[in-house]
Design a protein that fits this description.
heterodimer; A: alpha+beta; five-stranded mixed sheet; 11 strands; 54% helix; B: four-stranded antiparallel sheet; 7% helix
Chain lengths: 462, 322
């Protein structure tokens, strides 16, 4: 497989050769057209002027001598001929003699016209341009003035010149092809870098990046590649973290259950401690169940991104039902749930998913609220959408953590993981569900003061 | 019933005649038997122009075939031949119809008719032969000759043939065409005249190579001995013996020479453009200009009239009452 650079180079090289050949042919053509035409015109002009020296009758010795004298001072070759033999006068007879002019030319000359010839003349044994001017008196071809000039082809024009021409054309070709080769290599370097980087990526080296030096197509491609590489790297890291977290989260309750049950089996636990131990085992088992359920739910929501059927739901009713479900949980911490909802709001959603969203968020609000406080829920219409605000007066979320709270297994307080009983998946699920419902989530929080969570959902269209 | 049959037969016959007439060859304008004429065979665009003594064109025969020569056979027939043709055609002048055609070898250079023995002779440059025919066109005898036999003349029982691209003249017995003598001559000799008064044979010629010939040579009619040369520049190739003179045209200088039998030039005149032939017709000397396509009628040393003829006048045929 040839490299693309080689191919481009070959292409340009071929074009170069075509150009050089074309220029050569063109020059030859122009030479023929201009130089030959010009010479021919001069010859005709000179010939016709000399023709005026002829005073009818026989061509005299004096006339021939005159022409010869003129020839001595002219750069053209000129001579006069009066031998009828040379003028094809014996045409009807089969004479074995190569005459200076042929029968057709004789006819033209007899008519008083001059004859132009270009090409090989056996008499002179070379390529010639020649002009034959007739000396005609009363239909008699008494003689001719023959003018010729060697037709020097460009190759013959100057042999050294031609060699020089070929050498310079060759050097030109070599130099230009070298420069083109260098130029293409320069242009192709980023592409080569990119190719190497892609190769590295395929080996799993996601930290590979390419330098971006230009803003052309290749430059854009390079920076896009860098972005892609970054995204892949992040996703890879997230995947690793997720796996690590899942295994860690599962391992803790399992080791609890395993430890206590082995202790019971070995009779280390006394009879009166048994009840408490079994309660512990059940609690950890519940945690595991909840964790796996939530993981399952998360996986499912991620899979069914597209196919979801939404329908009009009265928002007030749903919120009241959620309030009812969570009242018991709130009572434990002596927290009151305030609900202020515009009953006219009807939104487009799936009821089960919608309830899940509210439950997750309100549960969080209860969990992280101080005892004897309250959680306020307000639903209003804003900018053509429904906006549900859930406000608690709890511990709040540090500013730097707010953007990460929807990540899976992300906990604001890593140390408190077990104590507050959360799996770290709740808000991830909320975000996934809202994405399906075409809603979004906004979180504001002040540490030690409380958190405001806003859910924006589309209203039913009229 | 019978009348109907007659009618049918009549119509059928008529159709037959029309059909047969359609098949026959082209007929040319005829010339009465007793009309005198001089005919010019023109070879650039083959044609035969018949002209009377007043310079009036009697007939113009235009040919499709590339004839390069013509000869009168007797009083009322003209034989047409071509160097590149493989047939020769004989026409009857008084009817303008073709009398017969005959297949021949390609390469005919000349046809000569002898009125005394009523035979004609054909020279061929491809086979280098001469062949005799009777008046009906039956082939008689063939004889191998030198290179490119062309000019011919006869005297008594001898036939003189000039070998154009050779250096010899062949003297044959006219009856059996046996070669009796071979005389050394110049190459490219052409034009022949027999002057019985001085017992001489005069030969003209083009000359060899680039050097043109400029004289007519006189040979002894019996021995072939060179009697002398007459200076007649340039390239005398058309010779014609008349009652009191020998007419010579030199095509290189467009010159007509009129010489007495001793070879003294009586007078000369520049005439025509590239003339190859001269002939006597009534009181006129007629010269044909090959390049200017004209016949010049000269009487008493004066050009009396010119007649335009077809392109490339190359031969002159004369018919006049004896």
């Amino acid at each position: 497989m040839k490299k693309i650079a080689t191919r481009i180079w070959l292409l340009i090289f071929a074009f170069l050769i075509i150009t050089v050949v074309f220029m050569y042919v063109l020059t030859n053509f122009l030479y023929q057209r201009l130089y030959v035409q010009d010479t021919e015109d001069t010859m005709v002009e000179v010939g016709l002027k000399l023709q005026t020296k002829y005073n009818n009758g026989k061509v005299t010795d004096e006339f021939i001598a005159d022409i010869e004298r003129f020839n001595d001072y002219s750069n053209l070759n000129i001579f006069a001929v009066r031998n009828p033999r040379e003028l094809s006068a014996c045409v009807p007879f089969d004479i074995d003699y190569e005459t200076l002019i042929g029968p057709e030319e004789r006819q033209k000359l007899l008519a008083g016209n001059y004859v132009q010839k270009i090409g090989y003349e056996p008499r002179f044994d070379r390529q010639l341009i020649s002009v034959v001017i007739p000396l005609v008196d009363q239909n008699r071809l008494e003689g001719i003035i023959y003018i010729y000039f060697p037709l020097a082809k460009i190759s013959e024009l100057a042999n050294s010149g031609v060699i020089l021409l070929f050498i310079s054309a060759f050097i030109f070709l070599v130099v230009v092809s070298y420069l083109i080769y260098k130029g293409i290599r320069h242009i192709m370097r980023p592409l080569n870098d990119l190719q190497r980087a892609v190769e590295q990526m395929s080996y799993g080296n996601y930290e590979t990046r390419v330098p971006v030096n230009s803003r052309d197509e290749i430059g854009k491609l390079s920076s896009t590649f860098n972005k892609m590489a970054e995204a892949i790297q992040q996703e890879d890291e997230a995947q690793k973290t997720f796996l690590a977290t899942v295994s860690h989260e599962l391992r803790t309750p399992i080791s609890y259950v395993k430890g206590y049950s082995e202790a019971m089996q070995n009779g280390i636990i006394t009879e009166n401690q048994k009840e408490e131990t079994i309660q512990l085992i059940v609690r950890e088992a519940n945690r595991m169940e909840r964790l796996t359920n939530e993981l399952l739910q998360l996986a499912r929501t991620e899979n069914e991104q597209t196919e979801i059927v939404v329908y009009p739901i009265p928002l007030g009713e749903t919120l009241r039902e959620v309030q009812k479900i969570l009242t018991h949980q709130a009572d434990k911490k002596n927290i009151t749930l305030h609900l202020d909802v515009d009953d006219a709001l009807i939104i487009q959603a799936d009821e089960v998913k919608l309830k899940q969203v509210f439950i997750n968020i309100i549960e969080n609000a209860i969990n992280y609220s101080y005892e004897n406080s309250k959680v306020e829920m307000v639903a209003i219409e804003k900018n053509g959408s429904a906006q549900i605000t859930i406000k608690d007066y709890g511990i709040g979320i540090p500013q730097e953590d707010i953007s990460h709270v929807t990540e899976r297994f992300y906990r604001v307080n890593k140390a408190r993981s077990r104590a507050d009983g959360g799996s770290g998946l709740g808000l991830s699920i909320v975000e996934q569900l809202l994405k399906q419902l075409q809603g979004r989530l906004e979180i504001e929080s002040i540490i030690e003061k409380g958190t405001i969570v806003k859910i924006i959902l589309p209203l039913m269209e009229d | 019933m019978i009348t109907l049959k007659k009618w049918a037969f009549f119509i059928f016959s008529l159709l037959q005649i029309v059909w047969l007439a359609g098949c026959t060859e082209k007929t040319y304008e005829s010339i009465e038997r007793d009309r005198n004429f001089i005919a010019s065979l023109n070879i650039q665009e083959p044609s035969l122009d018949f002209i009377d003594e007043n310079g009036k064109v009697l007939a113009k025969w235009l040919f499709d075939k590339a004839y390069s020569g013509a000869t009168l056979i007797g009083d009322d027939q003209v034989l047409l031949y071509g160097h590149q043709l493989n047939t020769m055609d004989v026409y009857t002048i008084s009817t303008g119809e073709k009398l017969y055609s005959k297949k021949v070898e390609v390469g005919i250079t000349n046809v000569y008719y002898d009125d005394n023995i009523k035979q004609f002779f054909i020279t061929n440059s491809k086979t280098n032969t001469v062949t005799s025919f009777d008046q009906e066109g039956n082939e008689l005898v063939t004889q191998q000759l030198g290179n490119y036999p062309m000019s011919m003349a006869s005297y008594k029982d001898k036939l003189y043939v000039v070998n154009f691209k050779d250096t010899k003249l062949s003297v044959l017995n006219m009856k059996n065409l046996h070669i009796e003598q071979e005389w050394p001559i110049q190459k490219s000799s052409h034009g022949i005249a027999i002057v019985e008064e001085t017992h001489e044979l005069w030969i003209g010629g083009h000359g060899e190579g680039s050097k043109p010939n400029s004289s007519v040579k006189k040979y002894d009619l019996n021995t072939g001995q060179l009697h002398g040369e007459i200076d007649m520049p340039l390239m005398p190739v058309g010779l014609k013996k008349t009652r009191d003179a020998v007419l010579v045209v030199s095509h290189g200088h467009n010159e007509l020479y009129v010489a007495d039998f001793d070879g003294h030039i009586k007078w000369q005149q520049e005439v025509g453009a590239n003339p190859f032939v001269v002939n006597q017709f009534k009181d006129y000397i007629v010269v044909a200009g090959y390049d200017d396509h004209k016949l010049y009628f000269i009487k008493d040393g004066q050009k009396e009239k010119t007649v335009d003829v077809g392109k490339g006048a190359f031969q002159l045929l004369v018919r006049e009452e004896k």
